[in-house]
């Protein structure tokens, strides 16, 4: 497996867990808004990482990793807000928040390494 491909499965599993969590959001206005935003960001981590792995050059790979970092960071934001506002009170919220934070750190480091910094 190519080095860049190593995170395809973990990001895919993260996306699936986000979908499963979103299915448990309440059908309130804020529940729907938070769910939609988290769903877009959380699945965007995996989708954009796959796109990064298909980059035609190292510059394109590095640029697309920037989008992955943004999506992971946004996922963490929505998970933090979900927790702090008690929109969904499940242990999965905090576990996914930690995982999103770890993904941000991994991809920031990957971007630095790929860029030669």
Helical residues, percent? over 70%
In the CATH hierarchy, what is the superfamily? 23S rRNA-intervening sequence
Strand content is under 5%
- Can you give the mean pLDDT? 94
CATH topology heading: de novo design (two linked rop proteins)
Q: Which sequence of SSEs, written as H and E, runs from N to C?
A: HHHH
The count of β-strands is 0
- Rg, rounded, reads 15 Å
Q: Which sheet architecture does the biggest sheet show?
A: none
Identify the CATH architecture.
Answer: Up-down Bundle
Q: What count of helical segments does DSSP give? A: 4
Which structural class matches the secondary elements?
mainly alpha
Gross morphology is elongated
Counted up, domains total 1
**CATH classification class:** Mainly Alpha
Low-confidence stretches: none
Q: What would you say this structure looks like, in words?
A:
By secondary structure, this protein is mostly helical. It has a single domain (3-114), classed as 23S rRNA-intervening sequence (de novo design (two linked rop proteins), Up-down Bundle). Helix content is 78%, strand content 0%. It has helices spanning 8-22, 29-53, 58-84, 91-114. Helix 1 (8-22) packs antiparallel against helix 4 and helix 3 (58-84) runs antiparallel to helix 4 (91-114). The radius of gyration is 15 Å and the shape is elongated. The model has no long low-confidence stretch (mean pLDDT 94).
